[in-house]
């Protein structure tokens, strides 16, 4: 299979504007008030985009883990909580992935989530040993 490359351009950094090359994603950006920024109304931030991307990728990875194990599930719902820690040494990220898998018992859901996190999800692979990522079955 060929590789896929996503293209996004930001002008103005964290208080600017971001847009993908196909124009499907366009957003104004603003540093949240919580960390001393202007928190412009209607604007997003990189942490929200990271949470959206990670939750989508992780949900697909749980579904793929179920496919590999021949486990029939219902809907998979993932909420990614991305925390931007602001400290004296700079900034750090942490992620909590709260996953619900309809149609399976808790033990099966936990096994699928672990397989997704440890073996499949590209976001989990990219962040491994770099930032704190906690997985939780809800």
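^ structure tokens above, recovered residues below v
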């Amino acid at each position: 299979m060929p590789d896929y490359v996503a293209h996004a351009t930001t002008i103005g950094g964290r208080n600017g504007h971001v847009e993908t090359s196909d124009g499907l994603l366009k957003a104004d950006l603003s540093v949240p008030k919580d960390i001393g920024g202007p928190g412009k109304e209607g604007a997003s931030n990189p942490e929200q985009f990271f949470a959206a991307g990670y939750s989508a990728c992780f949900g697909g990875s749980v579904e793929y883990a179920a496919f590999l194990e021949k486990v029939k599930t219902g809907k998979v719902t993932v909420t990614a909580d991305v925390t931007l820690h602001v400290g004296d040494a700079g900034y750090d990220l942490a992620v909590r992935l709260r996953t619900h898998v309809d149609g399976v018992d808790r033990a099966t859901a936990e096994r699928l989530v672990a397989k997704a996190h440890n073996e499949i999800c590209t976001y989990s692979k990219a962040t491994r040993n770099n930032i704190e990522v906690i997985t939780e079955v809800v």
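The chain has a mean pLDDT of 97.
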